[in-house]
Design a protein that fits this description.
about 45% helix, 9 helices, 10-stranded mixed beta sheet, UspA, Universal_stress_UspA, alpha/beta
Length: about 260
C-alpha cells in the first residue's frame, strides 16, 4: 500500500494547526494529497452556531494557506454532523476516500462530555483505515524517522504492521518490540523480520520479560529509551454491551501517549 490520500480532521484552531503541519509533512514525504475535514456541530443556540461558523472559516483559511505554502494538492470539506449522524460517523465516511486518517488524542480531565470523547478509538474501529493519533500536548511537525512497532501475535498487530509499511520504508530505523512472548511467538518475530526485508525494510527485533510493570508503561519507557518518534500498534478490543472498547494496553498508551501512535484494527 502507498499513501496517496491523507484525511486530517480539524476541530479547533490551536490543536488543528499542529496536526495539519504533521499531515502536510507526511503528504510531502509520500507525494500524497490532503483532505481537510471540519464537521460542524448541530447547535440550536444562534450564538454557538455563529462561533462554530467563525471557527470553520478560520480553519478553512489556515488549510488553504498551508497547503499553498507547502505546494501540496488539497481539498477542504465542511459537513454538518447531523447529515451523517455525528462527528465520528462523518470522519469514518470520508476515511473511505483516504489511505490514512489523522486525528488528535482525546483530552482528559474535562468534566464536560463532548461529541469527540473517545473519538480516536471510535475512528480506529469504524473507519477501516490506519489512524494516526497525535498527542494534544507538544508539537510534532514530522514523524516516522525512528519507528517502534509494538508486536503481539494476532490479527490486529498483523494489520497494523502491514498498514505501517509505507512509514517503515521511509524510516531511518525500525524496532519490533514484544513484551512477554511465548516460545512460538519468538519464532514469529524472525519471520516478521524476513517479511519486512522483502519490502526493503531492515528491522531490529527485541523482546522483554516483564512481570511487575504494566505493559503499556513498558512500551512508553521503550519509546523514551529508543528516542522513537512513532509507535505502531494494533487496536485490540473487547466487546462491552455490544460495542467495541479498547483493550487495556492500547487504552493505557492512548491515555499517556508521548509521541504520535499509528493504530489499526
Amino acid at each position: 500500500m502507498e499513501l496517496k490520500q491523507i484525511l486530517v480532521f480539524m476541530d479547533d484552531p490551536d490543536h488543528s494547526a499542529d496536526r495539519l503541519d504533521l499531515a502536510l509533512n507526511l503528504a510531502k514525504r509520500h507525494r500524497a494529497g490532503l483532505i481537510g475535514l471540519k464537521v460542524q456541530p448541530h447547535h440550536l443556540l444562534p450564538l454557538r452556531r455563529d462561533h462554530d461558523q467563525d471557527t470553520t472559516e478560520e480553519l478553512a483559511r489556515l488549510f488553504s494557506e498551508k497547503i499553498a505554502a507547502a505546494d501540496v494538492k488539497g481539498e477542504w470539506v465542511t459537513v454538518d454532523a447531523k447529515v451523517l449522524g455525528g462527528v465520528v460517523e462523518a470522519i469514518n465516511h470520508y476515511a473511505t476516500f483516504a489511505d490514512l486518517v489523522v486525528v488528535g488524542q482525546s483530552e482528559h480531565g474535562s468534566s464536560e462530555r463532548r461529541a469527540t470523547d473517545f473519538l480516536p478509538e471510535k475512528v480506529v474501529f469504524g473507519s477501516g483505515k490506519p489512524v494516526l493519533i497525535v498527542p494534544y500536548t507538544g508539537k510534532y511537525s514530522s514523524v516516522g524517522d525512528k519507528v517502534l512497532v509494538a508486536w503481539k501475535s494476532g490479527r490486529e498487530s498483523s494489520r497494523a504492521l502491514t498498514d505501517a509499511v509505507p512509514f517503515l520504508k521511509a524510516a531511518a530505523s525500525t524496532h519490533i518490540f514484544e513484551v512477554n512472548p511465548s516460545q512460538g511467538e519468538e519464532a514469529d518475530l524472525e519471520s516478521l523480520r524476513r517479511y519486512l526485508a522483502a519490502h526493503g525494510v531492515k528491522a531490529e527485533v527485541e523482546t522483554s520479560l516483564i512481570t511487575e510493570l504494566h505493559v503499556g508503561d513498558v512500551l512508553l519507557n521503550r519509546i523514551s529509551d529508543e528516542g522513537s518518534d512513532l509507535l505502531v500498534m494494533g487496536a485490540y478490543a473487547d466487546l462491552h454491551f455490544g460495542n467495541y472498547v479498547l483493550g487495556d494496553v492500547a487504552k493505557h498508551v492512548l491515555n499517556h501517549m508521548t509521541i504520535p501512535v499509528l493504530m489499526s484494527h
